[in-house]
């Protein structure tokens, strides 16, 4: 997976590649999907949601440029796979999910794999997680109409945020950099994510 889908397509950050080699992706999908866990596509998880394709996880992870000492906020825990990858690359991951079934399954996996630097909670993640702000990096793994204002407010300076922004069919991956109180937005590839549902989402 790492060689053929990720490295070959231009994600070269050695720490991202190592994290994705380490995390057992097959444990984050249903038993029935196990054989397809390392394929080059997203897969359905419970409650009509999806685990992103490995390449997309890699692109988003690399864009955050984590060095090891960061505190990272993720919105949309889903299967827990993206949070697991991030947990290998920073000091602390905070992840928010709005569906309890998914959250419960992901939490069990974090314990099983001894990824003790991930804390997860049930909530509307478009409001962020004020208690632990500011975050050096924020990643939103569901697509919304705009970047939720609370997330921009909870981003550290300097800080990086990545999120799919667009309509409910197609979005563009936007990389936001906050530096010296200024916000710069870089538009990366075109993507398709499930809906970000909530006060600052759909
Ligand atoms: N990062 C996940 C991708 C899951 S799909 C993974 O690695 O598997 C997106 C997830 O975002 C879904 O589980 C969905 O329930 C969740 N979601 C959507 N809107 C949300 C919100 N406002 N707050 C928290 N989670 C949300």
How does this model look, in words?
- With 202 residues, the chain is of the alpha/beta class.
- Helices cover 25% and strands 28% of the residues.
- It has six helices and nine strands.
- The protein has helices at residues 2-7, 14-22, 54-63, 81-87, 100-112, 149-153; strands at residues 43-44, 50-51, 71-75, 92-97, 118-122, 135-140, 155-166, 171-179, 182-191.
- Strands 5-4-3-6-7-8-9 form a seven-stranded mixed beta sheet.
- Strand 3 (71-75), helix 4 (81-87) and strand 4 (92-97) form a beta-alpha-beta unit.
- Helix 2 (14-22) crosses helix 3 (54-63).
- 43% of the residues are buried.
- Bound molecules: S-adenosyl-L-homocysteine.
- S-adenosyl-L-homocysteine binds next to strand 2, helix 4 and strand 4.
Topology:
Blueprint (H helix, E strand, L loop, with lengths): L1 H6 L6 H9 L20 E2 L5 E2 L2 H10 L7 E5 L5 H7 L4 E6 L2 H13 L5 E5 L12 E6 L8 H5 L1 E12 L4 E9 L2 E10 L11
Helix pairs in contact: 2-3
Bound molecules: S-adenosyl-L-homocysteine.
Give the tally of β-strands. 9
Strand content: 25-35%
**Average pLDDT reading:** 98
Spatial shape: globular
Largest beta sheet, briefly? Answer: 7 strands, mixed
Radius of gyration, taken over Cα atoms and rounded to an integer in Å? 15 Å
**Helix segment tally:** 6
Helix content: 10-25%
Structural class: alpha/beta
- Write the element-wise H/E pattern from the N-terminal end onward: HHEEHEHEHEEHEEE
Q: Tell me the strand order in the biggest sheet.
A: 5-4-3-6-7-8-9
Distance between the ends: 33 Å
Uncertain spans: none
- Which small-molecule species are bound to the chains here? S-adenosyl-L-homocysteine
């Amino acid at each position: 997976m790492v060689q053929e889908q990720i490295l070959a397509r231009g994600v070269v950050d050695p720490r991202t590649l190592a994290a994705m080699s380490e995390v057992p992706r097959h444990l984050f999908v249903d038993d029935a999907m196990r054989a397809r866990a390392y394929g080059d596509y997203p897969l359905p998880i419970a409650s009509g949601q999806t685990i992103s394709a490995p390449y997309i996880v890699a692109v988003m992870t690399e864009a955050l440029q984590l060095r090891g000492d960061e505190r990272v906020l993720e919105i949309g825990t889903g299967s827990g796979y993206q949070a697991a990858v991030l947990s290998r690359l920073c000091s602390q991951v905070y992840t928010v999910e709005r569906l309890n079934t998914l959250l419960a399954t992901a939490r069990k996996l974090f314990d099983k794999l001894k990824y003790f630097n991930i804390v997860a909670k049930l909530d509307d993640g478009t409001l962020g997680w004020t208690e632990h702000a500011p975050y050096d990096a924020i990643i939103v793994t569901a697509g919304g109409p705009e970047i939720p204002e609370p997330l921009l407010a909870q981003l550290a300076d300097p800080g990086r945020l990545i999120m799919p922004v667009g309509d409910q069919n197609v979005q563009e991956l936007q990389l936001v950099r906050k530096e010296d109180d200024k916000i710069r937005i870089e538009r990366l590839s075109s993507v398709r994510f499930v809906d970000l549902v909530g006060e600052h989402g759909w």
